[in-house]
Amino acid sequence: MKIQRKTSTKFYIIAVLALIWNLMGVGAYLVQAFMTEEMIATLPEEQQTEFLIEYPAWHTAFFALAVFGGALACFLLLAKKKMAYYLFIVSGIFAFAHQGYSLATVELSSIVMPIMIIIFCIFLIWYSKRCITEGLLK
To answer: Based on CB atoms within 10 Å of each CB, which residue in 12, 29, 42, 137 is the most buried?
Structure first.
């Protein structure tokens, strides 16, 4: 006889917040990928320089894989699929590499966001593993 455990409200709050976080990442990637020179010209000067930096192609690819993988993992988490854990790991690996490069190349005033992203990735990997252990993800 299998005991079906009721999913807590906390699970849904965490999963939805994680999805919103990752969808904001997808939005940031899409803005970066499709920003035209005319659009960049309308930004404040400090922000213009950020868009004019030439990043290596792998950096942009890792950004895309991290955010799209994270968003898909969140959908899988909401669907209570065990595959979410493995996708969070893959997304985390790409995010760590992407943010590690950013940490190594940005000014110290911009250090907060890369660290927040890394912490959030670690939390989602841990939380999804915990959900598997508790039998919430199948």
So the answer is: 137
Phi, psi at 55, each rounded to 5°: -90, 155
Q: Measuring CA to CA, how many Å separate 15 from each of 41, 66, 78, 135?
A: 37, 17, 6, 16
Q: How far apart are CA 83 and CA 81, in angstroms?
A: 5
Residues of the chain with pLDDT under 70: 1-5, 48-53, 106-109
> Which of 108, 114, 107 lies closest to 66, judged by CA?
114
* Contact indicator for 115, 97 with CB cutoff of 8 Å: no
User: How far is it, in rounded angstroms, from Cα 105 to Cα 77?
Assistant: 33
Residue 80: count other Cβ atoms within 10 Å of its Cβ: 15
If DSSP codes are grouped into helix, strand and coil, which group holds residue 5? Answer: coil
